[in-house]
Amino acid sequence: MDKTHLVDHVTGHRRMRRNRKADWTRRMVQENRLTVDDLIWPIFIVPGTGIVDPIKSMPGVNRMSVDKAVEAIREAADLGIPAVAPFPDIEMNLRDETGSAILDPNNLINQFTIAAKKAVPSIGVITDVALDPFTSHGHDGILREGMIVNDETVDQVIKAAVLQADAGADIIAPSEMMDGRIGAIRRGLDAAGHQDVGIMSYATKFSSGFYGPYREAINTSGLLKGDKNAYYISPANGTEAMRDAALDVEEGADMLMVKPGIAYLDICWRVKEAFGLPTYAYQVSGEYSQIKAAAMNGWIDGDRIMMETLLCFKRAGCDGILTYFAIEAAKKLGRV
């Protein structure tokens, strides 16, 4: 008896569900996998000791003093997380128009790096040289007569990058989006003998509404005057983003980053396809907080959405993800 069905004739005897019929077949044909090696953990550092300060708009995320942050990264290293990315929330009286505190060799970010590399040498430290945590106006560069000046800002971030490398930073990740900063930082690092320090360029950083909780975390939201449209990329512009990334590649970036993440998966794919460099996405604070808030209200399965979004970055061509979910995801991956 011929058991051929109409469906067999319609599909030409091709059935996509054959490979989905059981857990073992689904595992056998899975195209992308998320591992703990894909996770970079951004953390927030504050002055003092013994401080673990919850951030209201980012449930589960804390500002930590250096001593507590070092304890936390020990856990991260034990979970197999390869690297952390620290961001400082410095005292308001140290913030000024030019962000001069970034040039203090003993500033908060450098204190953390020194302590982290001493206590947990196996974990990578990726530091930013943007000025926004250090300025009184909340912008990423030096503000002159209502404008963020490009070249003077670049001069300052070169010096900051060298100081961070001196403190032990393994990778400099410049996020301020000034023209020419990648090549300038590379030359500055090399001239200081830091040829082994890498540069992870924020190659396509968009002027996004997803950054709100981060600005609360480093206390710049109340300081910010105007917007950052004059130096961040418009969310409308994909071709411009690719031109920006291409310039960073030419200037010597070792790795490229797309920020924010989930709304820019097309850019992740285009960047990886075009340049072939290690490519990362930053799942930013607003993305994290949306998932957390919806999960806390019982509207979504938070763990499932967390893991799904992280996996989607891999599918879009990313080699890794900066995510506030790093610890939670690493624990979950360890149980799989």
TrEMBL record:
EC number, as in UniProt: 4.2.1.24
Recorded superkingdom: Bacteria
Active site: 205 (schiff-base intermediate with substrate), 259 (schiff-base intermediate with substrate)
InterPro entries, per database record: ALAD (IPR001731), ALAD_AS (IPR030656), Aldolase_TIM (IPR013785)
SMART domains: ALAD
Keyword Lyase attached: yes
GO biological process, one term: protoporphyrinogen IX biosynthetic process
Top-rank EC class of the record's enzyme: lyase
Entry-linked PROSITE patterns: D_ALA_DEHYDRATASE (PS00169)
Gene3D superfamilies given in the database record: Aldolase class I
Record bears the keyword Nucleotidyltransferase: no
Record-level Gene Ontology MF annotations: porphobilinogen synthase activity; zinc ion binding
Annotated keywords: Heme biosynthesis, Lyase, Porphyrin biosynthesis
Family: Belongs to the ALAD family.
Subunit structure as annotated in this protein's UniProt entry: Homooctamer.
Protein name: Delta-aminolevulinic acid dehydratase
Source organism of this protein record: Rhizobium soli
